[in-house]
Amino acid sequence: MKRSAQTVLQEGMFYTIAAANGRVLEVADFNTENGASVRLWSYEGQPWQQWSFEETADGQYRIRNRFTGKVMDLAMSGVVNGTWVHQWSATTGAGQRWEVVPAGGGVKLHNVLADKVLDLVGLRMDNGTQAQIWQDVNGENQIWRLEPVPDKLLEKAPPLPKPRGAAKPKSTRTQTGKGTRAKKTGGKGSRRAAK
Q1: Higher pLDDT, 33 or 152
Q2: Assigned domain for 129 exists
């Protein structure tokens, strides 16, 4: 266990990673694929918004998503300002290792490979803002609060994600032939023809 500014990180526990406005980091659209982006969103108690800190070396952690099982990683192993943070299967790479550094009532998440900290694109903190790395400028968008996920949210099985937007019903009409000789089959046209 290592102590951060306001919490004790424990193996096997899950945490939210919250910005100053209370929104948290999540895997975008509960995507389980390598390369899915990590972004900010309003907290809904969902497992794709919950993270564990797995110690890889003294003071260094992989940050693993509860829902996908994948870890925070630097896109294309980038080390420059503005490199996006996404999820990837765990490797031994330094781009997946983070240090938790106490800072101003929260913590900074410092990437070992890039020597930069977790940050938000455009200094924004609204839903959908992409996570990135940036040089440490003591910005409010670089300070995070790590809050343990309550046991009651961990005891129940994670819900299956619901697709966004309702699926449209499929048409029962088909068309045969071409041009003016085309005939409709299925739907009202076929019922009329059958009479």
Answers
A1: 33
A2: yes
Distance CA 16, CA 67 (A): 13
Which has more confidence, 114 or 175?
114
Would 113 be classed as within a structural domain?
Answer: yes
- The CATH number covering residue 105 comes to 2.80.10.50
Q: How does 24-41 read in b/e, with b if 16+ C-beta sit within 10 Å? A: bbbbbebbeeeebbbbbb
Q: Is the pLDDT at 65 greater than 80, yes or no?
A: yes
Query: Per the structure block, which two tokens stand in for 66?
Result: 């509860």
Q: Does the pLDDT value for residue 183 go beyond 90?
A: no
What is the pLDDT averaged over residues 98-127? 95
**Residue type (1 letter), 167:** A
Domain of 13 in residue numbering reads as 2-155
Tokens of 162: 């619901």
In a domain, 134, yes or no: yes
The pLDDT, as a whole number, for residue 159 is: 59
